[in-house]
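Deliverable D5.2: sample structural annotation.
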Amino acid sequence: MRHMDSTPLDALPTPAAVVDLDRVEANLRRVAAYAREHGLRLRPHTKTHKTVELTTLQLQAGAAGVTVATPREAELMATVADDVLLAYPPVGAARLARLVGLPERVRLTVALDSTEALEGLGRAAQEAGRTVGVLVELDMGMRRVGVQTPEEAVALARAVASTRGVEYRGVIFYPGHVRAPQVEQGPALREQSSRLGAFVQALTAAGLKPETVSGGSTPTLWRSHEVAGLTEIRPGINVLNDRNSVFVGACAWSECAYSVLATVVSTAVPGQAVIDAGSKALAKEEGMDPAGGYGALLDRPDVLVRSLSEEHGMLDLTGTSWRPRVGDRVRVVPNHVCASVNLHARLHVLRGGARHATWEVAARGW
């Protein structure tokens, strides 16, 4: 839900999640241009922001549909999107009931890697009187979910093709294990092309050529076209970006559109300042940057959040001459934006540096 809000940023209670809309729109234009240039369908993952407003902007910028991870995300994003992919195994009666209960106008597709998940989905779809698309999930090296071999992919795709209530639409994978800086990703991407080629070749030989080959991530985003056979990309983080994205070269620091506004509450301990944004605002996730820390200041990226407790964030001042005072306000770019956004009930949106609106993080939670 969107509320217009002109309250000055300095008047916000902290910690508060802040989004720079000008940077968001620039990020959206950049990824849409990349997808068009390389003939890739763009299906952004909404788990990063969990807001209907940002989904609307992504669709207006050229996204063909959206990706979700939870039933709540599916329900909320289906209010503005007609094409929804659940990139998560649809296991459990409650989850299935919510999925097949989405509006009939929604073209629903799910990812799965087992006959158990397939059988449950087929029953639920038949009972609801609708057809649900299926993408067979492939393990391309992350070792989280996905069938392991081309033979298993063929067997599962055949099962999908013969199951009532569902429709075989292709394959899906997530290269989340490729976390090296983009300039070093060449060998990993060539390996992805080789592995994917083996899967697609086996499926094609079996008469099950995948119409959709869905993959991609923010760390590998700008080199997605190097993965042969890919038809669709599902970046999530790039709409807002974070410290990890900067480290891998997926964005510049000036393209980080999300930060957590915090207040300095103590400078009593030499060499540090304490802010009121701890693990319950920033998320205590280790970053990719070997410098460590849990985030960095938006206007002073050399100043790191060295450590976190639940309500305290410790800024490391040992490498800077800057000395904040109690009451000063700072904005922190976290290591991982998705985890931080999920901790906040609303996003405070800036336009031209001034307060513009407040957006509810309506799909937050698991």
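Annotation notes: The mean pLDDT is 97. Residues 186-205 form the longest helix (20 residues).
The annotation will be released with the project's public dataset once the embargo ends.
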